[in-house]
Amino acid sequence: MDGAPRVPEQRRPGSPAKPPAPQEPQEPQEPQESPESPESSKPPAPSASPVPPVLRFSVLGPVRAWRDGEPVGTGSPQQRALLAALLLRGGRTATAAELIDALWGEEPPSQALAAVRTYASRLRKALGPGVLVSESGGYAVRGTGEGALDAGVAQGLAADAEQAKNTGDLCAARTLLDRALALWDGETLAGVPGPYAQAQRVRLEEWRLQLSETRLDMDLERGCHAEVVSELTALTAAHPLRERLRELLMLALYRSGRQAEALAVYADTRRLLADELGVDPRPGLQELQRRILRADPQLAEPSSPAPAEPAASPVRPAQLPATVPDFTGRSSFVRELGAILASAEGRVMAVSALAGIGGVGKTTLAVHVAHRARAVFPDGQLYVDLQGAGSRAAEPETVLGAFLRALGTPEAAVPDSLEERAALYRSALDGRRVLVLLDNARDAAQVRPLLPGTEGCAALVTSRVRMVDLAGAHLVDLDVMSPDEALALFTRIVGEERVASEREAALDVVAACGFLPLAIRIAASRLAARRTWTVSVLAAKLADERRRLDELQAGDLAVKATFELGYGQLEPAQARAFRLLGLAGGPDISLAAAAAVLDLPAEDTEDLLESLVDTSLLESAAPGRYRLHDLVRLYARSCAERDERPPGERAAALSRLLDFYLATAAGVYAIERPGDRLVDHLAATDHPGLRFTDREAARDWLYTEANCLLSFARQCAGLPDTLRRSIDLLWAAVDLSESGANSKEYEATARTLLDAARKVGVARVEARALMTLAHAHLDGGRFDLADEEAEQVVRLARRADDLLPVCWAHNARGVIALYQGRTEAGEEHLTHAIAHFRTLRDRPGEASALCNLSRVRLAAGSTGSAVALAQEGMEIYDAMGNSLRGANGRYALGMALTQSHRLVDAADRLLEALEVFRDSRQRLWEGMTLFRLAEVDLAGQRYAQGAANAELALTVLRGIGGEWRRGNVLTVLGHALTGVGHMGRARVCWEEAVRIYETLGSPEATTVRALLTPVEAV
């Protein structure tokens, strides 16, 4: 699951229980056989098939058997009991008396032995020859092969998980335990009678719980605290006296920031144990409560200390440049490269090639690693700057001459040709252990003659180009520093005192430097040399993107000059691609989007981008995705302003990219919502977008491109020619707000576009921008703001004769009125919305308003009308094949059916909606549907399931949907917890709900506050 909440099994309320299995054996209907009969002891006849059939058995659920994947009939309950007894003996023989005792205990029927023989005979025929064998007066199951029984498979997986856990690999251990637990299919030995089956059922269910506890414990160790609360809540409700589960729940709640609930769990547990057993909680649980009370920091996740690194002792000869005294971070690379160099002994040659953009610290890292590895190379270390980034790279024969002289070769003995020098160089290194550091290489051709070719030697190579054609090389792509490493480097240069008082400003500085070591060193050196500057002064200077590169120079160090070296070596087509890619904002760019920017076919674009990756000016973020370092992007933009001809090409490139995003997003919207008229009201595009036939692929594109799409929309807000299309792009990408996945970024983009639209002063543009912001505020639970904005939309859109925003605004205002308890206003707005949608012949819009009107009627007490309206809206969606909005219809219908006390139908509709919302990645609607399922559970008095669903709703809605919705879920969770006897936790939930409602001024505060009085009395 890894971060995703575990969903408990959803059982429909009111479903009838299965009748109990008969306990008496059936009278035998066929000839019986004795375990000692000669026929039964004969070996099975050889199979005519060259491949024997594969048999599998399950006992972790109903007792079942399969042959080559096909089910095998296992007979009556007593016959299954006999099979289970034999399977769980692991091939050992069970006597007839043992089997009789297993099936009937102390009071077997008079025909028990005959019945056992009959069951054995039937099973032998069902399973085939050689499986159920008779020996020594009993029976056994043999020859089924490894992994035939699910219980044995689970045992093996559990053992492997324990081994993985002992080695520290919690991810692998957790995966193995998940696989083991997944083998259970309901109750162990379900429907199997007899004392032996009951004893094994208890044993295996206890083992199942232990495995679950172990896995949940691992989840807590891995930091998945909030995600396990729902499952632990359900498990503690099902096993209220199991203190280990209570302990895990307390810890999960505490680490999720829910300290009051964690302490309430302890109070509930202590009361339950006293009432049921007359005992106190065990010492471990009491100690956990004390540690929570004092906020013990040791309850946080432990961190493993980094292993100590061995010191290196200097030896001669040594050509390595001095390592920097303030070398910081890069510990994983230091260990990785050090291990490669240490393995040189016994190998022909160890070669590591470091690649990265200029200024990323390749040379610094290589020199640092080389110094640390000197003890491994007692015969010397050679170094050369190959000047590969400059216009005149070092010639290999010149470098070889210098190396030969350093190795003791007399000047007169150095040959003239490259081949002879390379051969003599390898001969000179034979039998010696020497490290060669080849810095700043141009390409693999320059490096090859300089590589040692003998056992015990090694080479470190740095280059801006990835040495993919350097055979046998260990390639290392060096990225920028982590924020912590960057801040540590800045602090070491500037001084702890100056940074400590302005930590936030220091973080702004290193972020403005793009965490590039060279840029950080320059910025820190400038600050260190200016005692009158504060860190905030430097941060303010770097905040201006247009001046940032000019600020990042000190003495002979300059970031821009470093980038200029790489740019100067590009071919014209590469240089154009580099310049234009720098124009687009966003964290990265896809191949298809880059092709739109460059106005080239995808194949040609990919060739260009991959060639830029090889120069390290562009990074390959993932297959088919590319990114520029922040400072490299600024440099690329400055190059575009300086070099791009004609100047209008920059605006044209941005327009092509906006067209690509808008056309593709409109296509995604259309495939998600068949028949929706929104796409007919969007601005026309000149550049095509991607076309999808598969809904999942379309959805993947939208969520993958979300950050890039929203960032680029904000970027285009300041351009009058692109503002209208940017706002329409936000309309087409509305799922990014509704899903909750990108709701904050969506809202920020909507606000930026609205500010720009108001400056333009065009009613149509302003109304559409305002509607996107109102939609974001509605999704976020800020209803007053959303209502005010939607009211303005109606006025502006009518002035512009733009009817679609009017429809949306009335629909939104109807929902807001519902949430605020203004049912008459809600009825009025939604009636207008339905009429306007019908004018536009927008059937999906009409269905949306009908479903919302259903909810208003439900709130007003017109349950029958609510059911009819929701049914009508759902049928419209279904007729158009609109599964996503059809789920909204099912959601509304499920609510109405709940109030009509048709709980089975309500659960069916809500579960159907839940499946669609999950598949569509609509987190907001997924969470709200779980909340509604919890309400169904409460109505059906299924309190444990209701608590689990409410907890899941809280987890899914974390950070989205607004506080009002969270207050509603907490209220329902409190009711469910009361139903399972967790009064303390219920009180904490209701107190939190009251605080939320009071902060928002919501009338629900009075209702929930009244719930606290009886709880406190208890």
Task: Compose a concise summary of this entry.
The chain is an alpha/beta fold and 1018 residues long.
Written overview of the protein:
This protein is α/β, with parallel strands linked by helices and about 1000 residues long. Helix content is about 60%, strand content about 5%. It contains 46 helices and 16 strands. The strands form five sheets. It has a five-stranded parallel β-sheet with strand order 8-9-10-7-11, with helices on both faces. Helix 9 packs parallel to helix 11, helix 12 packs across helix 13 and helix 44 runs antiparallel to helix 45. The protein is globular.
What descriptive keywords fit this protein?
five-stranded parallel β-sheet, 1018 residues, single chain, globular, alpha/beta, 60% helix, 6% strand, 46 helices, disordered N terminus
Shape: globular
Number of strands: 16
Question: What's the overall average pLDDT, rounded?
Answer: 85
- The largest beta-sheet arranges its strands as 8-9-10-7-11
Tell me about the largest β-sheet: 5 strands, parallel
Secondary-structure-derived class: alpha/beta
**Helical region count?**
46
